[in-house]
Design a protein that fits this description.
By secondary structure, the chain is an all-alpha fold. It has seven helices and no strands. It has one domain.
Length: 182
């Protein structure tokens, strides 16, 4: 029964990441410094500052379900800690770039635990989402949904299902990114 939570957690991860990616450009999602010229507060970013990192925590839970309890705790806590540290690091750069507008955003919207109502931040821009881009940019995560679903129904093949879903998703994501860069 617990294994059935794995595909659900992976699905939540995929939805969060695809929704968040739909509001970001490829230059931001795939950039090593996540540099943005405009502070957009729209879509999932009105509820949580880091929906992609929150999605990663759900993915860690999805995969961690197949580990020992200590492995599960390590995966989830480690991913959450890494997301919190990365979020704090990025917040310093966002503060330098956007000043008081970002400070108001940071006070109103939590980093990793979503608020229940959407925030409205004066001075922040609205974005036009590209859901096609959001879905394309999260093919790797979609493959994890497939892999964890297979693993939930065939636990004796969990390692292979998750491993192959990661590999297939990685190849697919790389090919798409390469084609879009051309």
């Amino acid at each position: 029964m617990l294994l059935a939570l794995s595909p659900l957690a992976a699905l939540i991860c995929w939805v969060l990441r695809a929704w968040g990616s739909a509001y970001l450009s490829p230059a931001i999602v795939w950039s090593p410094d996540a540099h943005a010229d405009t502070l957009y507060v729209d879509g999932p970013f009105r509820f949580v500052r880091n929906p992609l990192y929150l999605g990663n925590i759900f993915l860690a839970a999805a995969v961690g379900i197949f580990a020992t309890p200590y492995g599960f705790a390590f995966a989830v806590i480690g991913t959450a800690a890494f997301g919190a540290l990365l979020s704090a690091y990025e917040a310093r750069g966002m503060h330098e770039r956007f000043g008081p507008v970002y400070d108001a955003y940071r006070r109103a919207v939590p980093a990793l635990v979503p608020r229940f109502t959407p925030a409205r931040i004066a001075g922040a821009a609205r974005a036009t989402p590209s859901f096609a881009y959001g879905l394309r940019s999260e093919l790797l995560t979609a493959c994890f949904v497939i892999g964890t679903t297979i693993a939930a129904f065939a636990p004796h093949r969990a390692a292979a299902a998750i491993g192959w879903s990661w590999f297939g998703g990685f190849v697919l994501q790389t090919v798409i990114a390469w084609r879009e860069a051309r």
